[in-house]
Design a protein that fits this description.
The protein has about 190 residues and is an all-alpha fold. The protein has ten helices and no strands. α3 packs parallel to α6 (about 110-135) and α5 runs antiparallel to α9.
């Protein structure tokens, strides 16, 4: 049983290593991810959804430095964060499935475009974790999500996007991955308050 826990830890560390590579050098990161050839369904279950959970739980850290927060409000915000990422994954997958045939020659590779969605959302979730853990309001942190557009742009070789479709692909990918969490969060916060 401890061997199983060690294996889970190693695979999560490997996942985080690839995320760091994508942040530091997106082009090289996508090459390494391509060579690794991991199963996207396994990535979703064992790495992406747990990161969504950690991003949601990280909201509770705010209670250590903001003593005016009520537990119920923090719990609601944690639920909103998990739901926003969960829904965004399915929205992005649907948008990619519909639009990818027009961006590539031949049949789009579902494994590859799902992997791009997984890693892009994982980066946004890590930014959310960072944002929740920092006790001061840093005005630049929410704008770090724009960097995901650069990561998406560097994924065009990995996905074999046609040269003339790169700009449209990046716009579509950014709108389907970066924008939905913000919109879903705003809607839920409007409903809750």
């Amino acid at each position: 049983q401890s061997f199983l826990k060690f294996g889970v830890l190693v695979t999560m560390l490997k996942f985080l290593k690839y995320i760091c590579q994508l942040i530091l050098s997106p082009g090289n990161g996508w090459e390494d991810i391509s060579h690794a050839g991991e199963d996207h369904k396994q990535l979703i279950k064992t790495r992406l959804f747990p990161i969504f959970g950690v991003a949601a739980i990280s909201v509770f850290i705010q209670m250590f430095y903001d003593f005016d927060l009520e537990f119920v409000l923090v719990l609601q915000q944690a639920i909103v964060i998990f739901v926003q990422f969960f829904l965004t994954y399915f929205i992005a997958t649907l948008v990619f499935a519909i639009t990818m045939p027009s961006f590539v020659d031949g049949e789009p590779n579902e494994k590859k475009y799902t992997t791009v969605i997984i890693y892009s959302l994982a980066i946004i979730a890590l930014i959310t974790i960072f944002q929740n853990c920092v006790p001061v309001e840093l005005s630049l942190v929410p704008y770090l999500k724009i960097y995901v557009a650069i990561v998406l742009w560097k994924s065009v070789r990995y996905l074999a996007i046609k040269e003339q479709n790169v700009k449209n692909f990046v716009i579509m990918a950014a709108l389907s991955i970066i924008l939905p969490p913000m919109i879903i969060n705003a809607i839920f916060n409007f409903i809750i308050q």
